C-alpha cells in the first residue's frame, strides 16, 4: 500500500499481544467476507469491483467526459447520501484536477438553495446527472422535478436527451421508468452494491470522469488496494490493523472516533467516512460514533473537549506527506509577532508541526490516536483510501456481529415523512 498507518500512539491501549489474541476471530471475519458466508453477503459486490472494472468502460467514460465538457459550462449532480457524498469528497480532494464545475442538488430540501442555484446557472450551458440507486428517494426525486423544469425552460426535448444522464437501477424504480420513457442516457448501479459502497461504481466514476478526473488512476489505486488487502495477516494488511484497533478501542469504551485532518480538501472525505462507518456499524445498539475535526480551526473550538473532556474518544489523523502546495512565510523586518522563526518555511510545514504537536498532546491527554498517511492529493491515492476504508468497515462490522451492509434505521424517518406528506 502507498498509504501508511502509524499505531505508535495507541500505546497502552492496543498492542501486538492484543492483535495476536484477536487473530483467530480476525481470520474468520476475513474468510467470511471473502467467501460470502458473512452477514449481508448479497451486498458485497464492492469487494472485487475495482478488479472487475474494465478498461473499455473507463475509456468510454473518458470520451463521455470530453464530449460533455465541450458542450457544457457546468454539471448539476443530483443525489443524496451514497449518491452524493463520495462524489463531492473526491472532487474536493482532487480539486486541482477538476476541469468542469459541479453543483449539487437533491442533498437537501431547501428552496432557497435551489432558487439560488437556478439564478446562478441561468445563462450557463448545463448538463445534469441524476443519481439514485432506488430511484425513489424523496430529496433527489423532488430536486429532479425542479431541475427538469429549469432545463425545459432552456432546452428542447431533443437537447435534453443529450444533456441529462441517469445513474440508477438497471430495471426498477421511478428514475429508471422516467429515463426509459424520455430516452435519457443511463448507467446501471449493480444490485449487490449499497449506496455508501458505490463511489468506485458508476455512481462515482461517471460524474468524476465528466468533471475531468483521471478515473483510471482512481480505479488503479483501488485495484492495488483490493489485491493487497485480500491478503490476510496483521503484519501487512492495513485494513486489518485499523479495523482491529478500532474494535479493541471500542471494547475499552472508546465509543467515539474523531477523524482529524488539516486540509480544506478533506472536509467531505470526512463526511463520506462518517456515512460509511456510521451507517455500517450503527445498529443493534452498537457502533462507534464517527465524528470529524477540521484542524487547526477546530483546535480552537473542539480542542478543549478533546484534550480534557470525557475519555471516551480515540482519534485517527489523516495526513498528506506531499501536499504539492508551496506558500512560503515571508520574513518581517520588525518581527512584532515573533514569527520570523518560520520565515522562509512552507505554510504546510507549519501545518505538519501542528499535526505532530496535536497528536502528542492528545495522546498525553488520554486520547489514543492513529495516523493514516497519504502520499499526495491524487486520484491513485484516493482510490486506495476509498477501498481501504470500505474493507476496514466491513471487518469491524463483522467483528461487532452486525450486518455492515444494510441500513434498516434509515427507513424510520422516511415512513413518518411520507405519512406527513400524504404520499402512498
Ligand atoms: O447508503 C445508502 O444506501 C444511502 O445513503 C443512499 O445512498 C441514499 O439514501 C440515497 O439512496 P438512493 O441512491 O437510492 O437515492
How would you sum up this structure, described in words?
The protein is an alpha/beta fold. It folds into 2 domains: 4-39 and 219-400, Rossmann fold (3-Layer(aba) Sandwich), CATH 3.40.50.10490; 49-216, 3-Layer(aba) Sandwich (Rossmann fold). 48% of the residues lie in helices and 14% in strands. The strands form 2 sheets. A 5-stranded mixed beta sheet has the order 1-10-9-7-8, with helices on both faces. Strands 3-2-4-5-6 form a 5-stranded parallel beta sheet, sandwiched between helices. Helix 14 links the parallel strand 9 and strand 10 (369-376). The longest helix has 22 residues, at 379-400. The mean pLDDT is 96. It binds 5-phosphoarabinonic acid. 5-phosphoarabinonic acid (PA5) binds next to loops.
Topology (SSEs and partners):
Elements: E1 4-6, H1 16-35, H2 49-52, H3 55-71, E2 74-78, H4 85-93, E3 102-105, H5 111-121, E4 126-132, H6 138-152, H7 157-163, E5 164-169, H8 174-182, E6 185-189, H9 202-210, H10 215-229, H11 238-251, E7 256-261, H12 267-281, E8 289-294, H13 303-308, E9 313-322, H14 347-364, E10 369-376, H15 379-400, H16 410-421
Parallel strand pairs: 2-3, 2-4, 4-5, 5-6, 7-8, 7-9, 9-10
Antiparallel strand pairs: 1-10
This protein binds 5-phosphoarabinonic acid.
Provide the descriptors you would attach to this structure in a database record.
14% strand, 424 residues, 10 strands, 48% helix, single chain, alpha/beta, Rossmann fold, binds 5-phosphoarabinonic acid, 5-stranded parallel β-sheet
Summarize the structure.
48% of the residues lie in helices and 14% in strands.
